[in-house]
UniProtKB/TrEMBL annotation:
Annotated signal sequence range: none
Compartments, as annotated in UniProt: Membrane
Chain segments annotated as transmembrane: 6-26, 46-67, 79-100, 145-171
Protein name: Fatty acid hydroxylase domain-containing protein
Fatty acid hydroxylase domain mapped to chain residues: 88-223
Length: 274
């Protein structure tokens, strides 16, 4: 199991570096703020979230999956299915669960207060795929652990899902100018940067669409798919319209306290610092 943890970390670092290079070489749109004003906080959340998970949950996804396998927990551990079929079922169900998790974080006001940390960023690049409040990361981890106990997935399925989850989150949040013909073909199956970019629009009906992170079929199936932004990809405004471009929204302390503040409080704070 330790070698799986090593490869998960290695692939995460490798993919993050790759998408940083690709979006630097072929950017989709101009940055509103320089990297130095956003990346320290966005990337700092990775470290904080990792520490939070280790403190709250004694077992990670792979460790719990190994225990579930030993104890024969979960539906799939009671069935004599071929390994490839168990893995395929798990990847589909995990993907569907994350789609609905994301949609509920938009629909339920208390969850939205936490999730809006991800949405107030006025720029769009690979670092945004890692910008989540520790509370959201903890809740997401609890959901994944519950699914592991219920399903009893093979360890390889858990490993593949974690790699896909991180890799696709970075891919579809990257400021990558993917050729339109590639985008059109890829989005038949996968969520592309152009498809997910619509989800970060300030327009209400646009940021309440395109919830998928990996397979694009869920948005089509559950009627939350929107092909293109109304203002086009060069005219799209990122962030939330009722939140100011406050410095607090680009610094780690401000991001951590954001779920507990209102837009008016941020406005006041920004004015006082001006």
């Amino acid at each position: 199991m330790q070698y799986l943890e090593f490869w998960r970390l290695a692939l995460f670092v490798g993919l993050l570096s790759l998408f940083m290079i690709l979006e630097w070489a072929w950017p989709r749109h101009a940055r509103r703020f320089p990297r130095r004003q956003r990346w320290p906080s966005n990337l700092g959340l990775i470290v904080l979230n990792s520490l939070t998970i280790k403190l709250i949950f004694p077992l990670g996804t792979l460790a719990l999956g190994s225990l579930a396998e030993q104890q024969h927990w979960g539906v799939l551990n009671q069935l004599a299915l071929p390994s490839w079929l168990s893995i395929a079922i798990c990847l589909l169900l995990f993907d569907l669960a994350i789609y609905w998790q994301h949609r509920l974080f938009h629909a339920i006001p208390l969850l939205w207060r936490v999730h809006r940390v991800h949405h107030v960023d006025p720029d769009y690049d690979v670092s945004l795929g890692l910008r989540f409040h520790p509370i959201e990361i903890a809740l997401s981890m609890a959901i994944k652990l519950a699914l592991i106990v219920i399903l009893g997935p093979p360890l390889l399925a858990i490993f593949l899902f974690e790699v896909i989850l991180n890799g696709m989150a970075m891919f579809n949040h990257s400021n990558l100018n993917l050729p339109q013909r590639w985008d059109a073909r890829l989005r038949h199956a996968l969520v592309t940067p152009d498809m997910h970019r619509v989800h970060h629009s300030q327009l209400y009906h646009e940021h309440n669409s395109n919830y998928g992170f990996n397979l694009s079929c869920w948005d089509r199936l559950f009627r939350s798919y929107r092909a293109q932004p109304e203002l086009g990809h060069q005219g799209i405004n990122f962030g939330l319209a009722n939140w100011p471009l406050a410095k607090d929204n680009r610094q780690l302390p401000g991001l951590l306290s954001l779920p507990f503040r209102s837009p008016s409080q941020v406005n006041k704070s920004s004015t006082n610092k001006a």
